[in-house]
Each structure stands twice: as structure tokens, then as C-alpha cells.
Amino acid sequence: MATDVGSWAAAPPVDEAERSYSGDEDALNEAEVNGNWTPQEKALHEARLKAKAKRRLRKSSSRNSTSESFSESGDLVGGDPNSPKGKVNTNDRKSRTGKGRGLPKKGGAGGKGVWGAAGMVYEDEEPDARDPNYDESSQGDTVYAKVVPEIDEKELEKMVNPIVQEYFEHGDTKEVQIMLKELNLGPHKYEFSSLAVSLSLEGKASHRELTSRLLSDLSGKVMSQSDMARAFDKMLQELPDLILDTPEAPQMLGQFIARAIADHILPMSFLDCYKGKVDCEHARVALDRAAVLLKMKRGIVRLDNVWGVGGGQRPVKHLIKEMNLLLKEYLTSGDVLEAEHCLRDLEVPHFHHELVYEVIVMVLESTGDTASHMMIKLLQSFWKTGLITVDQMNRGFQRVYDELPEISLDVPHAHSIMETFVDLCYQESVITKQLRDACPSRGRKRFVSEGDGGLIKN
Description:
The chain is an all-alpha fold. Helices cover 57% and strands 0% of the residues. The protein is elongated, with a radius of gyration of 56 Å.
């Protein structure tokens, strides 16, 4: 009897709710056995079973966490000793669900202000320039490199045209080399040569001479023979378009090719590569022109005179001869535009006073008024177009004024012809009134008059 009492005392107390639930379950089980369950009773039974299972799960989890919190001495670890149920401290970082091991997160390497776990050694890393805390001055010696972006093919023409036009003014090839080295032409380097040649075709003979010199100086320093060959090959393909602006483009391009081969810019086999492979008629004309020039000048290293000599470099006697020939052709044809074109081709604007001088001398030496009127028409055209400036016009007339006494030895009536010509020029607004008044006049000098008895008149 005493044993039964002890076992009863050790048995855990039964909750009143469980007792009531167990009594209801017994009644439901009896009803199930009898087969008298209604659908409502069946649903109620299932809900009670689920609630009971949840209560048991909660009780088992709380018992496991409580047992793990006891130390070997039987005291609660981290619990409040005054708590009747031995409740665990809520600030404890150990898991209270019974699923964790009670270890800190990330092995103690996480958290605010923590740089990894204790005792961890980091290797040296290269500084990242994109790091917000990157300090350039603390990295030692810094080497700066200038990076020039590659020029696009569309922008190349806009960059090259001013360089070539400026070169036509100063003629300094070294400056062009410096400017090209500052540009990153990339694979479009050869197009500089083709653009320079195309611009010179539209310009003067002196421009073409300057372009040939530029190509010779750039070869081997900025551009190779393959770049030059590629540039001229492109020009041969573009000849049908170049002829629209420059009808003489095939002949000029042939002269460029001959000069380039003579200057060793292009290889000697450049023309042989096109034999029997050219379908364009204009390209054949250019290649034939180059072949003829090379055969004629085979023994000469450089075709220096292929473009002629520049205006400022020509001898004075040669220029005077050219101007005389120009005026004689004008008196024969009467074509003012052709005379203007020939004068522009001479490229000696500083020497136009010689043309004015030759015009007046021809008028003084001519017979009749035809030459006088034609020359006035010619000077008037040059004056209106601005080909001959005021300074050059005044200088030409003044030279004739100074030399008129000597001219009178060959042309006795030079003074009277000169006065008439000057008045006509003033009426056509070719010269100014001041220049007309400066014209010398030789009046009739009578020292002894007939009938005065041989007395000298005062």
C-alpha cells in the first residue's frame, strides 16, 4: 500500500483540461463504436486530435531546452534563480528552439566593427583605383600616360583639311609631322595622303608641288610605302568622282604617281601591279601618264619639274616673258577670262605691277586705237575682280612715268599717247584722280618766236 502511494505521489499531475478532453474522447470513442457519429461530431473530433498533438509538441520542446540549460551541478545556466519555473534569460544568444548549437553567428567573425575572426591574417592586396578611399599620393611614383582616342573615319576629313590648307600657306613639312603624331589616326592613316592629293588637285600648281614634297618627307617617318600605295590605289578608284570637279584629274594623278615613284615613296613595281587589271578608263589614263613620265625621266632621280617651278621661285626674266606672251595672246584672241586664268597660274601677285608696265608700253608702241581700248578693257577687268590691287596698279603707272623720257627716244609721241591713255583709264575708273594728275606732260617750248626780232620771250 505504501508502494502504491509513493508511485502515485511521483506521477506527474494531470491537467484538468486534459481530463475533460479525455472524458470527451471516451464518449466520442463509444459513439464511434456504436456508429452514431454525426458529421459535426466527426469534425470536432479531428480538431481536438490536432490541438492535442500541438500541445504535446510544445511540452516536449520546452522540456528539452530546460534540460540542456542545466549544468553538471544541477543549477540553471543563464536562468533567473528566483524564477519558479527556471525560465531562461531572454538576452541569451543561444537558440531556444532546440534546433541550434548555441554558437555565435559566422564563428564570431560577424557583427558591427568586426574584421573577421580572431587570429585571421590577411594577405597584401593591390590598391584599387576605384576604391573611394584610394589615395593616389600615397602610392609612390605615379607615371602619367597621355591617351589619345582614335579618330573616327567621319571625323578624319574635318581634322585633316585645316592641316593641309594651313600647310599650303606656310609650307613647313615638320610642323605637319608634329601635328600628325599628336593625332591617333589608327588604321585610317593612309587616308591623309589621299585627302592631301585630292585637295591639291583643286588648287594651284604650287599646291601640288608642296603636296609632293610633303609626301616625300612623311614617307618612312609617319607613313610607310604600303600606306602610300594604299592611298594612291584609293585615288585611282575615286577618279570618276574627282573628274566632276577637276577634269584634268587623271593626268595630274599620273604625275603624282610618277613623282612618288621617282622620290621612292612608291615601289617601282607599283605600275606593274595594275597591268591588265584596270577596267576604269580614267585610271588607265593616269597610269599611262605616269609610265610615260618615268620613261622620259628614267635617268633622273627626282622629277622636280613635273609641276613646274613655284611663282615666287621663278626668274624675273621668265616671268616677264610669260606676261608678254599673255598680252600678245590677248591682243590676238580678245579673251579676258583666259588672260585672267593665265595670270593667276603665274602665282606672283607681288609682281603684277610688271604686267601693268608691259600693258602701257605696248599701248605706247602700238599703232591705232584698237590696242589702247583692248588694254583698258583688260585692266578694268583685273581691277574689278581684285586680281590687281591699287598698290600694284599705281606702281606700274609710276614706273612708266619715271621712264617716259627714255621711252620718248624710241616713241616720239609717247607723252601725248600717254596723256590720252591715262585720261581713258580714269574715265573707266581704272586709276585714281591723284594718279592721273601725276602723269607728266611735255608742253611746247618756244624760246625764240618768229617776228620778235630774235628776242627771247620771258
